[in-house]
Amino acid sequence: MSLSLPLFVSMSAFAVAASVSPGPVNLLVLSTAIHAGWRGAMPLVIGASAGFTLLLWLIGIGMVELWQQWPLLRQLVRLGGVAFLVWLAWKLACSDGELDMGRGAEPAGACTGAFMQWVNPKAWLASTAGMGAFAADGDLALVTVFAVLWGSLCALSISLWALAGDQLSGWVSSSRRMRCINRGLAGLLLLSAGFLLLG
């Protein structure tokens, strides 16, 4: 494995651009942080980052062949992702807008974050594209370095969404404002689900 500075910079730029852009995981982290604060969103951030890193690494060492050879797998991931996004959108839309997480409501956790990455076709496609661009020869050391690098940058990017949600929680002081934000986020999740169905 030869990891030059230009290759490292290119990998990093690709990873940040793919990770920081709005998507279902980032929207859920934003909503969770508004409700539970930055610290309350961290299990979701850690789970999503770990789930994505594992997915990326497995694709890099050969799981992409399953993805390409089994169209049924792609359809199951797509339909599972759509169903999960619709469920999350419904939960957000039905929320009463209360910010008090101490009444028995639990913020989304690490397992939810990891699961979201595994049923997100965009995560599969980004992983496949990234590995194809930077580790196409399947060199285990390069695949591992890229997966750890991207996973770390993914965690940082998603943490920024949690920080944004934490900062918004002060502005969203009323249940009415929170209901509006929740319904807006629910609409964006439904839009994401619609794009997954079309893709």
Protein described:
The protein is built from seven helices and no strands. With 199 residues, the protein is mainly alpha-helical. It has one domain. α2 runs antiparallel to α6. The model is unreliable at 99-104 (pLDDT under 50).
What is the domain total for the residues?
Answer: 1
Shape: globular
Rg from C-alpha positions?
Answer: 17 Å
N-to-C SSE string, H for helix and E for strand: HHHHHHH
Instruction: Give the termini separation.
Output: 35 Å
Percentage of residues in helical conformation: over 70%
Count of helices?
A: 7
| Poorly predicted regions | 99-104
β-strand percent reads under 5%
Task: Name a few traits of the molecule.
199 residues, mainly alpha, globular
Summary of the model, kept short:
The protein is mainly alpha-helical and 199 residues long. It has helices at 5-20, 24-69, 71-94, 110-118, 121-134, 140-171, 175-198.
List the helices and strands and how they pair.
Elements: H1 5-20, H2 24-69, H3 71-94, H4 110-118, H5 121-134, H6 140-171, H7 175-198
Helix pairs in contact: 1-6, 2-3, 2-4, 2-5, 2-6, 2-7, 3-7
